[in-house]
Amino acid sequence: MLHLDKQFFQILHEQIEAGLDRDLLAQLVDFRAADIAEVIENLRVEDAHYLYRLLENELKADVLIALDEENRHELLSGMTAGEIAEEVLENLDSDDAADIMSELPESKAEEVIQMLEDNKQASDIRDLLNYEEGTAGAMMAKELVKVQAEWTVNRAIREIRRQAEELEQVYTIYVVDPEGRLTGRLSLKHLLLNAESTRTKINEIQETADIITIQVHESSEKATKLMERYDLVALPVVNHEHELIGRITIDDAVDAMIEDAERDYQLASGISEDVESRDSVWTLTRARLPWLLIGLVGGIGGAYVIGAFDIQKNAEMALFIPLIAAMGGNVGVQSAAIVVQGLASSNMGTQNMLSRLSKELGVGIINGLICGLLILASSLLLGFGTSLSITVSLSLICVIIFAALFGTFVPLMLNRYKIDPALATGPFITTVNDIIGLMIYFAVGTLIVGMI
Amino acid sequence: MLHLDKQFFQILHEQIEAGLDRDLLAQLVDFRAADIAEVIENLRVEDAHYLYRLLENELKADVLIALDEENRHELLSGMTAGEIAEEVLENLDSDDAADIMSELPESKAEEVIQMLEDNKQASDIRDLLNYEEGTAGAMMAKELVKVQAEWTVNRAIREIRRQAEELEQVYTIYVVDPEGRLTGRLSLKHLLLNAESTRTKINEIQETADIITIQVHESSEKATKLMERYDLVALPVVNHEHELIGRITIDDAVDAMIEDAERDYQLASGISEDVESRDSVWTLTRARLPWLLIGLVGGIGGAYVIGAFDIQKNAEMALFIPLIAAMGGNVGVQSAAIVVQGLASSNMGTQNMLSRLSKELGVGIINGLICGLLILASSLLLGFGTSLSITVSLSLICVIIFAALFGTFVPLMLNRYKIDPALATGPFITTVNDIIGLMIYFAVGTLIVGMI
Question: Tens digits of per-residue pLDDT, B307-335?
Answer without folding.
Answer: 888 788 888 889 999 999 889 988 998 89
